[in-house]
């Protein structure tokens, strides 16, 4: 099986990366736009960006999950791993209903990759498909060498992911715990947020560890247990 087919089948998608598992905070407009695009409505091209840990990858994978649930063909291409691919990974993707490109900033300044992406964009446009792209900066700040690539990315709707406040991070953390069947009271949640790095991906990784260890030890998530397991 070639890499294209593996990606098309959703290899690399996290099961928990769904819209229902995303605490949207001030990002309701973005989430609505993404859902509309997945459903072949609204915008044909969406570019959204944010710093690491703000949920860009989660939302992009959620788009693929939602597409698959409605029997639409979709592909998730993580350009953070572009060294494992060649620019030919983009060939033929325009035949799919939805193409999701993660971390496009990773190929900025790489002529062969930029040109391949530019041609993919045009083929998707010609085919009437949908394209969703993420990055860590706005299109104009990408530092691409190919001017036409930047102009294409700026043609669509551009969103900046709005970071969660501390209160929203706590709510998101408790929501994720509840969806996993974990009872996490507010005091314990606040303790974890106070003593762990506040990137949501790091917090959810800590939740994974706590979930496994609490099941193994048959103990509830209390502050002393959290201290013991996370060594804080």
Tag the structure with descriptive keywords:
232 residues; alpha/beta; Rossmann fold; Helicase, Ruva Protein, domain 3; 5-stranded parallel beta sheet; 9 helices; 11% strand; elongated; disordered N terminus
Number of domains: 2
Helix and strand run: HHEHEEHEHEHHHH
CATH class of the largest domain: Alpha Beta
- Order of adjacent strands in the largest pleated sheet: 2-3-4-1-5
Number of helices: 9
CATH-scheme architecture of the largest domain: 3-Layer(aba) Sandwich
Helix content: 40-55%
Q: In percent terms, what proportion of residues is strand?
A: 5-15%
Ranges with pLDDT <50 over ≥5 residues?
1-6
Question: Can you offer a commentary on this structure?
Answer:
With 232 residues, this protein is α/β, with parallel strands linked by helices. The protein is built from nine helices and five strands. The chain has helices spanning 3-8, 28-38, 56-69, 111-127, 147-155, 166-179, 186-195, 200-217, 223-230, and strands at 45-49, 74-78, 98-102, 130-135, 157-160. The longest helix is centred in the C-terminal third of the chain and has 18 residues, at 200-217. The protein is elongated. The protein starts with a helix and ends with a helix.
Brief overview, please?
The protein is of the alpha/beta class and 232 residues long. The chain has helices at 3-8, 28-38, 56-69, 111-127, 147-155, 166-179, 186-195, 200-217, 223-230, and strands spanning 45-49, 74-78, 98-102, 130-135, 157-160. The protein has a five-stranded parallel beta sheet with strand order 2-3-4-1-5, sandwiched between helices.
């Amino acid at each position: 099986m070639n890499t294209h087919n593996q990606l098309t089948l959703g290899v690399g998608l996290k099961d928990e990366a769904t819209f229902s598992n995303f605490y949207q905070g001030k990002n309701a407009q973005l989430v609505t736009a993404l859902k509309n695009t997945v459903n072949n409505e609204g915008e044909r091209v969406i570019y959204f960006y944010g710093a690491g840990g703000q949920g860009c990858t989660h939302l992009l994978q959620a788009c693929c999950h939602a597409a698959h649930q409605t029997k639409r063909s979709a592909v998730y291409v993580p350009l953070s791993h572009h060294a494992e691919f060649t620019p030919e990974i983009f060939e033929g993707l325009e035949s799919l209903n939805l193409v999701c490109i993660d971390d496009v900033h990773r190929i900025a300044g790489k002529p062969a990759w930029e040109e391949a992406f530019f041609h993919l964009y045009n083929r998707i446009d010609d085919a009437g498909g949908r394209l969703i792209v993420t990055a860590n900066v706005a299109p104009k700040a990408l530092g691409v060498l190919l001017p036409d690539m930047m102009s294409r990315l700026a043609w669509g709707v551009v969103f900046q992911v709005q970071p969660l406040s501390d209160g929203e991070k706590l709510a998101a953390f408790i929501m994720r715990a509840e969806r996993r069947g974990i009872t996490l009271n507010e005091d314990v949640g606040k303790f974890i947020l106070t003593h762990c790095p506040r990137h949501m991906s790091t917090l959810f990784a800590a939740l994974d560890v706590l979930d496994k260890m609490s099941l193994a030890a048959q103990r509830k998530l209390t502050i002393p247990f959290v201290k013991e397991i996370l060594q804080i």
